[in-house]
Every structure is written in C-alpha cells, then in structure tokens.
C-alpha cells in the first residue's frame, strides 16, 4: 500500500515529495511524518557552515543535521566528546542562514542534556532561539526518555539517536550495537521508548540491517540509518566522508560520491606552483 501511494504521489504531483518536491517553504516535522505514510525514502546530510549548507539546499536535500561530528570533521577534535553547546549554536546558526528549504536539526552535544530534562530544555532552547533550528537531536533511548518528553511538551521537535551513540565512546567504543538476542531486544525497547516519548524520527547507527528493518516496520516514526542497511526510511552520512574530504580510514558504511580531498589538494598545489613560478597573476587578474 505504501509503495503504491509513494509512486502515485511522485507521478501526479512532485510538489509533496521531500526530495524532488517543489516549493521553497521550510520543511517541517509534519512533512517528515507524511513521507513515512507515503513510503517515501529521504536523504539527510550533515552540514557545519552556511556555504556548504546552501549547496545542499540547492541540491534539494530536505533535512540537514548540524552534527556534533563537527568535532572531528570541522573543529579538529579526536571525538565528539569535547564539542560545546556554544560551538553547536554558532555552527547551527550558520547552517540556518545558508538554507531556505531544508529542515535543520541541531545536535545537542555531550554534557548539554545528560543532567536531566531541565538542562536538556535549556540547551535545546538556545539552539532554537539563538540558531533558529527546527528540531534538535540527542543520543540515547530509554535513558533519554524524560528529556525527549519535556522538549516535545515544550514545543521542540526531537530526533532521537540509538544504536552506536558516539558521545559514549569512552564507555562503549565504536562497536556494532544490537548483535545477539539480548542486545536486539534492548534496541527495540530503546526505539519504542523514544517513539513513546514523542520523538519525530530516530537515527539508527551501526546496527545489523535485519534489526534496523524490524525497527522500521514496528515504529510509526521514520528511522534514519547510518550503517543500518537499506530498509530504514531515511539515510544519513557525514558530508565530509561521503564527498571524500575527511582524511584517514572510513567506516565501512560510507560510500564516497566525490574525491574532494584530491580535488582541493590539486587546486592548492596548482595555485602554489603558479605563484612560485610567477605565472599567477596574469594581466587579466590585475588592475591598472
Ligand atoms: N567523520 C565521521 N564520520 C562519522 O560517521 C562519525 C564521526 N565522524 N564522528 C561521530 C560518529 C563516530 N562514528 C563512527 C566512528 C567509527 C566507526 C567504526 O570504526 N566502525 C567500524 C565497525 C566496527 C565494528 O565492526 O564493530 C567500521 O569499520 O565501520 C563507526 C562510526 C560515526 N560518526
Ligand atoms: C552521524 C550523525 C547521525 C551524527 O550524529 C553526527 O553527525 O553528529
Ligand atoms: Mg552526532
């Protein structure tokens, strides 16, 4: 039923589709819910600055996450753990300014919501008021249930994040989550807990594809997979990973769609050689 209605929606009127749809009004969490009912899959990318975000907005990416992966990919930290709420607020504000259509989700960084619901509300309120995000994301299933509830009651849409939760790297490492009967049952409980608390979507990070498929069938809110197989409602990747800008070893779940590290390095070298060799600037680049 959902597959058929998705096809009909796209062929009759493209304006509704999250990707490929027309119109420049800001996408809302209600549009996200409607996409699951249509059986429509959608893409999400991270973004950390206005210029990159404007490129993705023009490309039609309907949802952007200002991830705390900015810690590794933008700010030079080893992990996401040191990222501060001030940093996330500044980066989120830039992404909002660079976009017109995409729903912008701001990641709450480690230490900005673990104290409890009141701290979570204070932190999320900064991202909403100072940066202008349309939603926030936080890590944890059952353990973050109370935080999600208060934010949603207060009018702040929440994207949850379960499975591998990188802010807990010191406790859990970067390991596949939900392998084995007990861990799978826990992941399902976490998924139901965030849905019951009112989350509008949930990220499933590094969980077996079969389990992610089951969670996606059981929940009425959309699942957003990263390293979680092909059956989730949406897919997210860190933009610097999927464009080949991040250096070093890539997780297995990354597909590279461009080689920006090579392209940018070559451009920097070409400029340097022109300067050293005296072939830049030419007369056309000079004023008289
Ligand atoms: N650049 C970047 N990309 C990401 O996807 C990302 C970040 N940074 N920072 C925050 C978290 C950390 N993430 C990570 C980091 C490492 C692995 C990793 O090494 N995974 C192994 C599998 C380990 C296993 O089999 O248990 C892999 O090879 O994919 C996965 C996710 C995802 N997030
Ligand atoms: C990988 C995604 C889900 C994330 O949390 C981030 O980019 O910080
Ligand atoms: Mg994150």
From TrEMBL:
Uppermost EC category: transferase
CDD domains found in the cross-reference section: KPHMT-like
Pfam families: Pantoate_transf (PF02548)
Compartments reported by the entry: Cytoplasm
Keyword Transferase (UniProt): yes
Protein's UniProt keywords contain Ion transport: no
Cofactor: Mg(2+)
Catalytic-site annotation from UniProt: 205 (proton acceptor)
Main location: cytoplasm
Annotated metabolic or biological route of this protein: Cofactor biosynthesis; (R)-pantothenate biosynthesis; (R)-pantoate from 3-methyl-2-oxobutanoate: step 1/2
Any one GO molecular function term: 3-methyl-2-oxobutanoate hydroxymethyltransferase activity
Cofactor binding: number and manner: Binds 1 Mg(2+) ion per subunit.
Enzyme Commission code: 2.1.2.11
Record's keyword terms, sorted: Cytoplasm, Magnesium, Metal-binding, Pantothenate biosynthesis, Transferase
Catalytic activity: (6R)-5,10-methylene-5,6,7,8-tetrahydrofolate + 3-methyl-2-oxobutanoate + H2O = 2-dehydropantoate + (6S)-5,6,7,8-tetrahydrofolate
Positions contributing to 3-methyl-2-oxobutanoate binding: 68-69, 107, 137
Binding-site residues for Mg(2+), renumbered to this chain: 68, 107, 139
HAMAP family registered for this protein in UniProt: PanB
Its biological purpose: Catalyzes the reversible reaction in which hydroxymethyl group from 5,10-methylenetetrahydrofolate is transferred onto alpha-ketoisovalerate to form ketopantoate.
Quaternary assembly: Homodecamer; pentamer of dimers.
Family: Belongs to the PanB family.
Protein name, entry field: 3-methyl-2-oxobutanoate hydroxymethyltransferase
Top-level taxonomy: Bacteria, Bacillati, Actinomycetota, Actinomycetes, Kitasatosporales
Gene: panB
